[in-house]
Amino acid sequence: KAWLELRAAAKKKPIGGVVGPAELISFFQGAPYYDSAWAPTAKTWSAYRAGDTQALIDAAAPDMSDLAGNAASENGNAVYSAVECADAKWPTDWRTWDRDNTRLHEKYPFMTWANAWMNLPCATWPAKQQTPLDVKTRKGLPPVLIVQSTR
Fold it and tell me: What confidence category does residue 18 fall into, taking pLDDT thresholds of 50, 70 and 90?
């Protein structure tokens, strides 16, 4: 609930004049993907909830002067798209994306649309899309491959 309230407030009036919903997503989306982001994200969130808006502004506001960091971030997005879009077959019809993500958003609003926008280039990706591998396991184990963490 607090997350939705924060996003709604930032949409009406960006925090510190610079942190709106897009900046919030950019900052908070690291925590589910990288365990190294958990503690700094939690610290920033806790500080904000305790009334320290500057901590969130410092962490989430764009820094247009950081040319190297911005270039690295853009490069990271390009690599992500190249891997994500080639690893599996993606829908090519916008109506499928819209229907699926609208349904998902009803139950899981945190990052549904941000994730959809990040992956939408896959709808028109020019390289061949692969068929996912059938992951085999040993008897008695679930048919799941779990890969997690950056360490």
Answer: very high
